[in-house]
Structure formats: structure tokens, C-alpha cells
Amino acid sequence: EVQLVESGGGLVQAGGSLRLSCAASGFTTDDYAIGWFRQAPGKEREGLACISSSSDNTYIADSVKGRFTISRDNATHTVYLQMNSLELEDTAVYYCATSLGFGCIATMNYPSSRGQGTQVTVSS
Prior knowledge:
The protein has 1 helix and 11 strands; from the N terminus they run βββββββββαββ. The longest helix has 6 residues. The strands form 2 sheets. Strands 2, 4, 5, 6, 9, 10 and 11 form a 7-stranded mixed sheet that branches. A 4-stranded antiparallel sheet has the order 1-3-8-7, with no helix packed on it. It is mainly beta.
């Protein structure tokens, strides 16, 4: 069974940084992309970033480009979202997701498995 578990969220002041982790398990292949999403109360889900299985293809949404970066460590099956210069508007539940064997286009548009999410709260 595929499992994605996020960690690293918390309370941070505006301008601060957080690094979120997404630990993946249960995959029968290493060929999977992982995407990061967020959802704030009353708002639609927003796709933030994605990284391919070999890290040769990454995507960062324009809304967070220059502040967020994505990376992965296949040895530990972990994908990271480094978030810098956090703003009040970044407050949301952040979660990672995958489309099980497909690349970033499918992952960002049709994620089939996701984690429970981790809360990020940015204060002034």
C-alpha cells in the first residue's frame, strides 16, 4: 500500500523558512513523481511544485517561484519542499501527492494518492 507522510509544518513568522518532508513508502517502483499542494480554508487546492523520479524534471508554480524549491533523496524515499521568505498568504495545509508511476503532468493534474497533510501557519 502506497503511503505518503508529510512532516515539518508548524508556526513561523513572516519572512521565515520551513522545510517540509514527504516520506514515501509502499511503492513497487522508484519511477514516480511527487507533487506538493496546499489548501487554505475556503480556497481551492493549489499545486506548488513537482519533481520527477530522477529529479531531472522539476516544476515550481509561478506563485511561489523564487521562494520555494523542491528536491528529493531517493535513498530515503523522501521529497522536500524548502520554503523561504514565507508570507501570511502561505498559511495552509500542505500535502504531497503522486499519480503512481506517472510524471509531473499527471501528478499535478490527476493525483491519485496523497498524504494527510501538515499545517503551515505564518504569523505577522
